[in-house]
Amino acid sequence: MLKGEPARMGTARILVVEDEPIARGNLEHVLRREGYDIVAVANGELAIRELERGEFDLVLTDLRMQPVGGLEVLQRARELHPHTEVIVITGFATVSSAVEAMQSGAFYYVPKPYKIDEVRILVRQALEKRSLRREVIELRRKLQGRGEAPLIIGGSPAMEALKRAIQQVAPADCGVLILGETGTGKELVARAIHQLSGRADKRFLAVNCGAFSEDLLANELFGHEREAFTGARGVKKGLLEAAQGGTVLLDEIGDMPLPMQVKLLRVLQERNLIRVGGTDEVPVDLRILAATNKDLKHEAEQGAFRRDLYYRLNVISLHVPRLADRKEDIPILSLHFLSRISQAQGKRVEAISDEVMDVLMSYEFPGNVRELENIMERAVTLATGSTVEVHHLPQDLQEGGRLARRSGRDFMTLEQNEREYITWVLEQAGDNKTRAAEILGIDRVSLWRKLKRFGIR
C-alpha cells in the first residue's frame, strides 16, 4: 500500500492508545461489539510502532502518557497516514491543549469523564468523514485515468439517473440539449458526453453564445476570410471548423441572436459552413451539444427561439438538477472542493466542522455547485488551522445558520431567547462589552449583571 493511500477493507481498523488498563479495556470491548477491528496498546511508543507497521482508519489516543504523549502520536499518525482520523481523549483538558490538538489535525478532542455513547457517535462520524475522503480520492483517480469521463460527483438518485443517461446518449452521436440552472455543471455534463463518445480523441470546444454580439459570434463560430473586414489580415478558422471530428458545446444557446440561429441551422442540416466574407463551403464533421438555463420550448412557442432549430438540437434532453434538490451530495462535494483548493493553495485544511456542515445543508444555494465551490475557496483562504469553521463562511450564511438553528428548536423561554441574543451580539462586537452594551441599548453595568445571571463569560 502506498503511503497516504486509504486502507481498502470492509471493517474499519481502529488503534486505541490508553495507559489506563480499565479505560483501555472498556474502549476495546465497546468498539469490538460495534464490529470494528481493534488494536489496543498501553502507550505512545507502542502506538507509533503500530502506525509504522500499517495504516488505521482511526486512532483514539489518550493525551498524557509517558514517555511519548498523545500529541506526538497524533503528529506521527498524520505524517505516516495523512487520511487517518485521530480523536484525542484526556483527563487533563485545557484550552491550549485542545487548540494544539485541533491545529495538529485531530478530528475531535474529548475530555474525561466521557459518555461511551458520545464516543460511539464520534467514532462513527470520524469514519464517515474518512469514507467520504476515500470516495473523493477514488473519484479523482478516475478523473486522472486515461479515457475516463470528467468527474461528476454525487450519489443522490437524481445524479445517478443523470450519469446513467450520459452513459446511454454519449455513444449515439446525436444532438443533446442540456438543461439546468446557472452553476449546476452543464459544461461538465457536455465534457462527459464527449469523453465517453467515439469522438473522445478529438477536440472539445465550448462557446458562450450570450457573451458575444451577433457579428463577433459569427466570427467566433465560422471564422473569416482574409480582408473580410478591416483588420482581417488572414484566414481564421472558427470554432466549428477547429473542432473538426470533435464536439462543440453551444452554451447559453437561448441567448443566440435569431439571425445566427438561421446560420447554425444550415450547418446542422448541410454539414458545411461558409466563413465570414467567404463564398466557399467548408465541410464539417462534428457533434453539436447545446446548453441553456432557459425554458427553450417556451421560448420557441413565443417566437424568441426558432422552432426548427429547437427540434434539431433537442433530439435528447438531459436535466442537471439544482444543488438544493440533491442536498445529500453537499458533504462529498464540499470535501472534494476542500481537498482540491487546499492542494492548490499549498495549505492543509482537511476538515469541515459539524456546525459548518449544518449551515451548508440548510442553505438553498441559488448559485448551485459553483456557489458551493466559491464558498469553500473563501473558507480555505481564510482558514488558519486544519478545519473550516463557521466564521470562515460568508456573513449571510453565518447569519442564516443562526436563524436556522433557532427556528429548528422547540419554543424557548424569554430568558433563553435573551441569553442567546446577548451571546450573538457579543460575537458581533468581537467580545467588546462596551460596544455590545451600546448595541443592546443598555449601560455596561446592566450588561455585566445579565452576563453574570446567564453565566456568560
Query: How would a textbook summarize the main sheet?
Result: 5 strands, parallel
The CATH class designation of the largest domain is Alpha Beta
**Termini separation:** 50 Å
- Fraction in helix: 40-55%
CATH architecture of the largest domain, please?
Answer: 3-Layer(aba) Sandwich
Order of strands, main sheet, comes to 2-1-3-4-5
Structural class: alpha/beta
Number of strands: 16
**Quick one: overall form?**
elongated
- Strand fraction equals 5-15%
Oligomer: single chain
The CATH homologous superfamily of the largest domain: P-loop containing nucleotide triphosphate hydrolases
Q: Could you name the CATH topology of the largest domain?
A: Rossmann fold
As for the number of domains, it is: 3
Sum up the structure in keywords:
alpha/beta, Rossmann fold, Helicase, Ruva Protein, domain 3, 3 domains, 5-stranded parallel β-sheet, 19 helices, 16 strands, elongated, disordered N terminus
Please give the structural blueprint:
Blueprint: E1 13-17, H1 21-33, E2 37-41, H2 44-53, E3 58-62, H3 70-80, E4 85-90, H4 95-103, E5 108-111, H5 116-144, H6 157-169, E6 176-179, H7 186-195, E7 204-208, H8 214-222, E8 223-224, E9 236-237, H9 239-242, E10 247-251, H10 258-270, E11 272-274, E12 281-283, E13 287-292, H11 296-301, H12 307-313, E14 316-319, H13 330-345, E15 351-352, H14 354-362, H15 368-382, E16 387-388, H16 395-407, H17 414-428, H18 433-440, H19 444-454
Helix pairs in contact: 2-3, 5-13, 13-15, 14-16, 17-18, 18-19
